[in-house]
Amino acid sequence: MTMRNMLGAYARFGKEAQGTTVKEVLQNANADFNIGMESVYTKDGKVIPNQFRTFREDTDETFGVVKGTYKVMQNERLLNISDDLVKRGMVDWDRIGLVDNGRKVIASFKMPEGFSIGGMDSVDQYIMLQNTNDGSGGIRILPSNVRIACSNQFTYMQNLLDKMGINKNALTIRHSARQEDRIAQLVEALKIVDHLNQTFMETATELINVEMSQDERINFYIDTLGLKQSEDMMKGGKDYDANNPYGLGTRGQNTLTTLLDLETSETNTINGMENSAWAAFNVATEYIDHAWSHSKDGKSSDSKVESAIVGAGARMKSNAWETITEMYA
User: What order do you get walking across the sheet with 35-41 strand by strand?
Assistant: First the structure.
């Protein structure tokens, strides 16, 4: 399978939401299970005060140990928060994904309107609801964009939200909140997403008009992907090789070759955007979503798919955006 034939991580995550009711969507996504809580015992059979395990009731798989004040958020209750907005036409069902058999549940929803980058490139808007069943956090609302040309996905990670002055509490829903309060919080979150994406669109429009030299682009890729360089192999070093001026190892050179090949793809040259800062950002995100999220033999890697959307891979994309906007926007 070649790089250009690989599906992006977002298209491989979880399952497409199918159904007209929350119950149907959950059943079709194999997510129609409940989370239980029960006491934790010592090896002598004594109850440990104020400690409870959370577990998946149909498989008895333990997810975490929590305090007695913890409130379980069942999958059905989670999706009911957004179902109200679906019925209002404010969002549409998109995908449902389980991480570690349900330790984490992620549901994505598409917003009715996307946006255009300088009239040259189109992006769809999404939000994701992420819930943890191990006590590690509340319900997170993750603003997300997907570029139509190549299905590159970009999630606003916390470091970017912090820089943009967005309080993380504004995009977090407490398990203990009343249902109507949760829905109200999600409505307010959509307003924040609109603001974020307006800023993203304006910044991207600037980047599409900024030309980068090949050297600038290569150094941006090396920084974004953390490719290892050897000073001894770089100019002035004892092992300098003019054919490898960036001092990359074999793996790094292969990655760079793939990235430079991506620069020439139709997805990154449409409407004359080639060699722009916007194109460089999309080359990096396309590599993470497509090649990086597959194993060496070209098979889809579930752990890297998740990572590309909400984990280390997503942070790489977030850092790429931060780096390139600080340089050129």
Answer: 35-41, 47-56, 61-66
Strands (E), 156-226: 172-173
DSSP three-state, residue 287:
helix
Q: Say how far apart CA 217 and CA 223 lie, in whole Å.
A: 10
88-135 confidence digits (pLDDT tens)? 999 999 999 999 999 999 999 999 999 999 888 999 999 999 999 999
List residues bridging with 147 in a β-sheet. Answer: 123
Nearest to 287, CA basis, from 222, 230, 228: 222
pLDDT in tens, 128-153: 999 999 998 889 999 999 999 888 99
- The total of other beta-carbon atoms located within 10 Å of residue 170's CB is 13
Q: Residue 8 is which amino acid?
A: G
d(CA 207, CA 202): 9
Instruction: Considering only CA atoms, give the Rg of the chain.
Output: 22
**How many residues are listed for the chain in this entry?**
329
Q: Strand 47-56 relative to strand 61-66: parallel, antiparallel, unpaired?
A: antiparallel
CA distance linking residue 207 with residue 311, whole number of Å: 25
Distance CA 27, CA 105 (A): 14
Question: Residue 301 in 3-state DSSP?
Answer: coil
What pTM did the predictor assign? Answer: 0.89
Three-state DSSP at 275 gives: coil
Q: What is the DSSP letter of 15?
A: E
Instruction: State phi, psi for 248 to the nearest 5 degrees.
Output: -90, 150
Q: Residue 119 and residue 122: Cα distance in Å, rounded? A: 8
Place of tokens 């997805």: 267
Phi, psi dihedral angles at 239 (to 5 degrees): -110, 25
Measured between alpha carbons, how far is 186 from 30 in angstroms, rounded to an integer? 25
